[in-house]
């Protein structure tokens, strides 16, 4: 039996309804919140606090996903203290990208089968014509979350299942999502003491932030497996796109990441935008994280040279 046979199950009708309801909720509500945010912006009914909440919560959201869910838990690229782990898991939960075990198992399956049969969100498995390519891009961006399949946690995330503290964060996921809405509401209320400012806090720092940050995140799975530069020859279609890397704090360097999945840095050259990698390096200097995994410069140079040679052949 292959890993794919063992690792993927077809959901029963009830579980599928629950999965689709929760996925659609986290797609549609932030979209509605964004429409309200745009209306408030256009009509001038917002304050500087709302904009700061949007920007600040965006940073917490992307940091929680990239440093916490992705580099810390999924790829085990560094170690940290319990309270830092808790902080990262709460921030990651606030992103509303699904419970921890779902996130980790799905992403590990993406790496295991990248752009081959079994990849849960490849844009490259829908045919070669331009219509099929467009359909693939759209599927990899959002509708893959509504799929009838489910990735088995026992196959792709047994280490997380064994960690009681991480399992607790998995179970607390709905509360962390709500905390991500309550926090900007509280800050908004504290700033001017009115229910209206609490409401605009939720709209900007909660819903519009989830929409904007998740659209950027999902570009990693869709666009960064279709368009962009490929400095390394991986067995997939992963690419580096600088503007996605800027918006996602380094995740848009997807070709680098697929070449060295366990590295805490996604940048392999100093000028590549990788804010999460820079933050982890700074936390390492402060002694808050340790055992940082990164490939040796010699290995990176060798892989780059191999890719250049393959490109010329
Ligand atoms: Zn990828
Ligand atoms: Zn990864």
Automatic annotation (TrEMBL):
Keyword Membrane: yes
Annotated transmembrane regions: 20-42, 49-67, 87-105, 172-189
GO molecular function: stearoyl-CoA 9-desaturase activity
Highest taxon of the lineage: Bacteria
Topology of the protein relative to the lipid bilayer: Multi-pass membrane protein
Key words of the record: Fatty acid metabolism, Iron, Lipid metabolism, Membrane, Oxidoreductase, Transmembrane, Transmembrane helix
Enzyme Commission code(s) on record: 1.14.19.1
Compartments where located: Membrane
Enzyme class: oxidoreductase
InterPro entries: Acyl-CoA_DS (IPR015876), FA_desaturase_dom (IPR005804)
Pfam family name, one: FA_desaturase
Domain Fatty acid desaturase, residue spans: 52-272
Protein family: Belongs to the fatty acid desaturase type 2 family.
Name under which the protein is recorded: Stearoyl-CoA desaturase (Delta-9 desaturase)
Native source species: Kibdelosporangium banguiense
């Amino acid at each position: 039996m292959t890993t794919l046979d063992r690792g993927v199950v077809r959901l029963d009708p009830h579980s599928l309804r629950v999965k689709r309801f929760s996925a659609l909720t986290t797609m549609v509500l932030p979209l509605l919140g964004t429409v309200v945010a745009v209306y408030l912006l256009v009509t001038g009914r917002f304050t500087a606090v709302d904009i700061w909440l949007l920007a600040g919560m965006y940073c917490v959201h992307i940091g929680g996903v990239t440093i916490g869910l992705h580099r810390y838990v999924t790829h085990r690229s560094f170690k940290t203290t319990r309270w830092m782990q808790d902080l990262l898991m709460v921030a990651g939960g606030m992103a509303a990208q699904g419970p921890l075990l779902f996130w980790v198992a799905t992403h590990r399956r993406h790496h295991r089968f990248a752009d081959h049969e079994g990849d849960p969100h490849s844009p490259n498995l829908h045919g070669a014509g331009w219509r099929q390519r467009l359909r693939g891009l759209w599927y990899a961006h959002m509708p893959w979350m509504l799929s009838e399949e489910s990735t088995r946690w026992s196959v792709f995330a047994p280490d997380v299942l064994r960690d009681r503290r991480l399992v607790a964060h998995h179970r607390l996921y709905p509360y962390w999502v709500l905390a991500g809405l309550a926090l900007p509401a509280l800050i908004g209320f504290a700033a001017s003491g009115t229910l209206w400012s609490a409401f605009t806090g939720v709209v900007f720092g909660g819903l519009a932030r989830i929409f904007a940050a998740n659209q950027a995140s999902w570009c990693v799975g869709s666009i960064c497996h279709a368009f962009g530069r490929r400095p390394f020859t991986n067995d997939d279609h992963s690419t580096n796109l600088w503007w996605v890397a800027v918006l996602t704090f380094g995740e848009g360097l997807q070709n680098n990441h697929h070449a060295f999945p366990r590295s805490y840095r996604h940048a392999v050259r100093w000028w590549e935008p990788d804010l999460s990698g820079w933050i982890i390096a700074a936390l390492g200097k402060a002694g808050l994280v340790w055992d940082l995994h990164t490939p040796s410069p010699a290995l990176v140079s060798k892989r780059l040279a191999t890719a250049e040679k393959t490109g010329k052949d």
